[in-house]
Amino acid sequence: MIYLGTATVLCILLYFAWKFTARNAYESARYTVVEAAGPFEIREYPDLMLVSTDSKAQPTNQDGRFMRLFRYIDGANQQEQKVSMTTPVFMDPENKPSDRQMSFVIPQQTAAQGIPVPTGENVRIQQREGGRFAVYRFSGRMNQDTTAKAEQKLRDWMKQKGFNQSGNLESAGYDPPWTPGPFRRNEVLIRMEQSEDTNPDN
């Protein structure tokens, strides 16, 4: 009974440790859902300001993109200003053969008051143009295999619905690395062409 009680308490502590460091603790990029069908959505995003970096494809343990961006929000900028973490982390898919970009979303208040200028090498501020996106949401660990399967499901759904794409695939992760796979929120997004077919008033 003692062991059972200890295990129960430990599980509760681990749950709350995860809950208060998970995605619901952070500001998330705004969007409006235009259409929803299970794990698929059509979303309208406003313009977003991002801090971005990129690198050649390499093993995860040698990928310095996240730490370059983390150092920026931790004060590696001309103003030496800390910037709040947000969700999601936007990324190019892992199977992209050229440089792969990773981006954090700048919080709305920081964007309105003035974005700190990066001092780190290969770190820049850029705008993600708003627009309409087709999105597929899935759980588990995001890697080349799971992203490829998610992309195929999204493209098949878009084809079935008669939607046309106007941009490349983008992936988005919402959780810290220690979040268990079944509780993770991952997404793949494809920018859509604006047409009568995607007009919610039709």
Describe the structure.
By secondary structure, the protein is α+β, with helices and mostly antiparallel strands. It has one domain: Multidrug-efflux Transporter 1 Regulator Bmrr, Chain A (Alpha-Beta Barrel), CATH 3.20.80.10. Helix content is 25%, strand content 31%. It contains four helices and eleven strands, in the order αββββαβββαββαββ. It has helices at 2-19, 65-73, 108-113, 144-161; strands at 27-28, 32-37, 40-45, 48-55, 86-87, 89-91, 100-105, 124-128, 131-138, 165-173, 186-192. The protein has a nine-stranded antiparallel sheet. Strands 1-5 form a two-stranded parallel ribbon. β2 and β3 form a beta hairpin. The N and C termini lie far apart (62 Å).
Count of β-strands: 11
Q: Could you state the order of secondary-structure elements as H and E?
A: HEEEEHEEEHEEHEE
* Overall pLDDT score: 86
CATH fold name, please?
A: Multidrug-efflux Transporter 1 Regulator Bmrr, Chain A
Give the total of domains: 1
- Main-sheet strand order equals 2-3-9-11-10-6-7-4-8
User: Which structural class should the secondary elements be placed in?
Assistant: alpha+beta
Radius of gyration: 19 Å
**In terms of quaternary structure, what is this?**
single chain
**From the 3D coordinates, which CATH architecture would you assign?**
Alpha-Beta Barrel
Biggest sheet overview: 9 strands, antiparallel
In CATH's first tier, which class applies? Alpha Beta
- H/I helix tally: 4
- For the record, give the distance between the C-alpha atoms at the N and C termini, rounded to a whole number: 62 Å
Helix content: 25-40%
Form type: globular
Strand content: 25-35%
CATH superfamily: Regulatory factor, effector binding domain
* Low confidence ranges: 12-21, 196-202
